[in-house]
Amino acid sequence: MNLSLLILTGMFCQSAFEYKTGDPESLFPHHTAIHDYTTPVVMRTSALLPFADGFLFNSYAGRPYSGENIASRGSTIQYGAEKYGIQISWNMFGADFYMENICSLCAGYTIFSFLHAGISENLYTLKINMSGLSENRKFTDTDISLLFTPFPWLNAAFTQTGIATLIKNRNSETIYPERSTGILIKPGKGFSLIWNITDTAVEKVNSFETIVNPTSFFSIKGGYCMEKSSFTTTFGILVKKFFVSYGLKYHPYLGYSHSIGISYAMNPEIETLHYGTPLFSLFKKKINIQTATPEDLEKIDGLSPLSIERIILYRHKIGPVTKKALKQIGLTGKEIKALENNVYGLERSSRNKEGGEYAGRKNNKYKIPRNEKIKTKFRAMIQSGIPASIAINYSELSEAVKISEFRKTVMNDKTLNDEQKKIIEKLCSR
Question: Does the predicted TM-score (pTM) go above 0.85?
Fold first, then answer.
């Protein structure tokens, strides 16, 4: 009880709301500008919200400084899409006689591919009921943040909390407008190094973090705060769509803090170390798109599993992949750019166009292989404006059934218009 009173009274005399969160994924209780997001975690900086993948629900509970009377709890709901993200969160710290609550509504948006911004509107409530001291305060304030991502392996961020307090100097006796700057370096997938410097109410503190994801279901994080001489570590395990984490923080004077958190994610994923590749290489060796395996293509950031499947299918059934073919099979401009930066061997135009070397041998009674017939018909339909998925189906069907049955199938296909039916029948009935 005496320890609890000492900690909480000391915090209020300096500035309340110094203990930002007890979430085990947050290695430090003070605010930091940037953190690792290679596991299903709550984005504690609003500018990071566009990097959240779908819905995530999180709850945590902790025992700060091993105090029997002190507790920390919180819950978060967040959603992230390609260019934006939103979040609603609640964090509590204190005891029956001293209680801090922060309710936040956050939003983040991608302005450019390398620049992201976020804003957070926070409701603070403080209740104190100790002998000789009674307080009940409620007020709002705003945080802003910026995130720079010039390279996949380098992120930099800046945050400023308490904008209203900073500008108008209101509530300055209760909340301190913290400022934080941080850098994240990723030498390889599944491995991150982070440095943050934060201007707190007491002093400027430097915090360092190391994150390693050795497997697709396990993550470990470690941190050190130089000014406070405090250490922290977190272990996380992914079980289906649930990510469970345990955090242990050590302060040389206040003791240990324990916390446990659980997150439910719609699209849970842990970015895992790639063994057998140079860990500290910032330059990836390009791969040949004509011979790359699905596993090779999965290593390319920004390429969806569906697009990988389409590339492999095109290569198997049609032939060498061209840049034009990438558009035809439905890849986005962003995916095509990611491919061009990571692969070589894209054909400028299809080999054996319109039958190629085989077409010239027809008069010599050279028998054209079935696969070449399918490829030729497919290319002809694509050039005539038939969608790739339809062209694949009918180029194969034309070589598998009798011509009368093929024509009947085309004429009865309600997904085709009259012009498309004429083109398909003409090109595939040769």
Answer: no
